[in-house]
């Protein structure tokens, strides 16, 4: 069989692995490239979508699922296997992505027409995103799914996002069975609400993520930092703007503000108005509340005591664009809004009204891909462009990496160390920037006898 790395190779986004056996062709994920790699989304797939038998989707985040509507548009007709929670989340996320594609194409075409240029089509439209639901095939964790007499797989909890999974494939060729494991995105320890990642017993080949392959999170300290940032900012009359991924990170931040911080500090937070301004985040929160089978013991204990961990009295849900615009007049509030990398959505409006105010704070709680507005701000840009207008950056900029949904280097190494019988053949490091991948490779050499490889984009291996 062969495996081709069609995304997230020496970069973080665009996850897509193509596997071809003697009888089947399929994908693990089909994600969108983001930041300075987003032009790759317009390139043809390096395989024929019509020939694919199925897709296994590790989780709903757009950098893992975002090109599935385009795949269907190009002729894919197979099943999309994922967990039940992922099937619901990806349904709303892809529709939101289609809305963004259409809106950006409309905006771009207005400028192109003024310049006498040809108009462009969105990557895909709402009707393409809506079609995806017809192909989704929800599965439970730990259930063996047999594709045929030669291919089977199980999904195990990856601890990264509601419904996220590790994929453990068993493929029989030439009378031999090989096990191939994809981590998808491994979760950080003690993420609010959802369980920690599960371990596997053994594998021949391991395809592992490396987003934070050279960093260490300090979750408890940085959760305390979030509280201090909020209090300090409100006291000086500013707003706290939190660009947050609508699915996963938003619900975790709500949990922390409502429960994780100690009781005396929570009392102080109750006097501060907190606004959730993300239509997608609101929908995702409703799905989170449905899928209690993914909750950890702490979240279940709260629910059993009639405590809703992600809903509280001073949380204000913003639904309409008029309500969102009214927040521009607010002072001394916390605004949680998407998108998490500041590339689209209502967060750009909130940045426009606050990034130039030295009394305000911008708090990043997730990974910022190279080339995104969020990454530019986080890297210390003194001036950024928002809606075509140059704006000076005077707000205080913070990064709370301990709230990341990704395992840090210690979390990744811990997971690999706990593979009971180890990795017998090779480890492929993907889904990371080159420095993180090289650093992780050096550390994996110490704990594993497997060959350790960092594939380039479109590299193909016979395994």
UniProtKB/TrEMBL annotation:
Annotated Metallo-beta-lactamase domain residues: 13-245
GO molecular function terms attached to this record: hydrolase activity; RNA endonuclease activity
Keywords per UniProt: Hydrolase
Residues of the Beta-Casp domain: 250-377
InterPro entries hit by this protein: Beta_Casp, MBL, Metallo-B-lactamas, RibonucZ/Hydroxyglut_hydro, RMMBL
Protein name: Metallo-beta-lactamase family protein
């Amino acid at each position: 069989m062969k495996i081709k790395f069609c995304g997230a190779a020496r970069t973080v986004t665009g996850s897509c692995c193509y596997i071809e056996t003697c009888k089947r062709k399929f994908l693990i994920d089909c994600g969108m490239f983001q930041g300075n790699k987003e032009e790759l989304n317009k390139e043809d797939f390096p395989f024929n979508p019509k020939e694919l038998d199925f897709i296994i989707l590790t989780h709903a985040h757009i950098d893992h699922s975002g090109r599935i509507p385009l795949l269907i548009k190009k002729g894919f007709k197979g099943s999309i296997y994922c967990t039940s929670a992922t099937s619901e989340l990806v349904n709303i996320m892809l529709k939101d992505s289609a809305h963004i594609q259409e809106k950006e194409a409309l905006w771009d075409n207005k400028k192109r027409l003024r310049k006498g240029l040809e108009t462009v089509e969105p990557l895909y439209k709402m009707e393409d995103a809506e079609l995806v639901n017809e192909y989704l095939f929800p599965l439970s964790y730990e259930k063996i799914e047999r594709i045929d007499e030669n291919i089977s797989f199980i999904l195990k909890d990856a601890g990264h996002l509601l419904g996220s999974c590790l994929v453990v494939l068993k493929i029989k060729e030439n009378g031999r069975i090989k096990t191939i494991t994809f981590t998808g995105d491994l979760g950080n320890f003690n993420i609010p609400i959802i369980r920690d990642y599960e371990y596997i017993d053994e594998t021949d080949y391991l395809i592992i993520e490396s987003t934070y392959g050279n960093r260490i999170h300090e979750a408890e300290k940085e959760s305390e930092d979030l509280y201090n940032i909020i209090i300090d900012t409100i006291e000086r009359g500013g707003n706290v703007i939190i660009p947050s991924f609508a699915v996963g990170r938003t619900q975790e931040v709500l949990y922390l503000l409502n429960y994780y911080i100690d009781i005396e500090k929570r009392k102080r937070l109750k006097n501060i108005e907190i606004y959730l301004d993300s239509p997608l985040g609101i929908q995702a929160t409703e799905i989170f509340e449905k899928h209690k089978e993914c909750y950890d013991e702490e979240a279940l204990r709260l629910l059993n005591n009639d405590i809703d961990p992600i809903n509280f009295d001073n949380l204000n849900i913003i639904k309409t664009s008029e309500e969102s615009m009214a927040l521009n007049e607010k002072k001394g509030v916390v605004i949680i809004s998407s998108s998490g990398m500041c590339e689209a959505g209502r967060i750009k409006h909130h940045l426009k009204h606050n990034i130039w105010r030295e009394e305000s704070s911008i708090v990043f709680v997730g990974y910022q891909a190279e080339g995104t507005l969020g990454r530019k701000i986080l890297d210390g840009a003194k001036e950024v462009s928002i809606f075509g207008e140059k704006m000076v950056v005077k707000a205080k900029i913070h990064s709370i990496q301990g709230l990341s949904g990704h395992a840090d280097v210690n979390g990744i190494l811990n997971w690999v160390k706990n593979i009971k019988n180890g990795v017998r053949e090779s480890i492929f490091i993907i889904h990371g920037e080159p420095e993180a991948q090289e650093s992780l490779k050096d550390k994996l050499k110490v704990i594993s006898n497997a060959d350790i490889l960092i594939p380039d984009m479109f590299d193909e291996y016979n395994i």
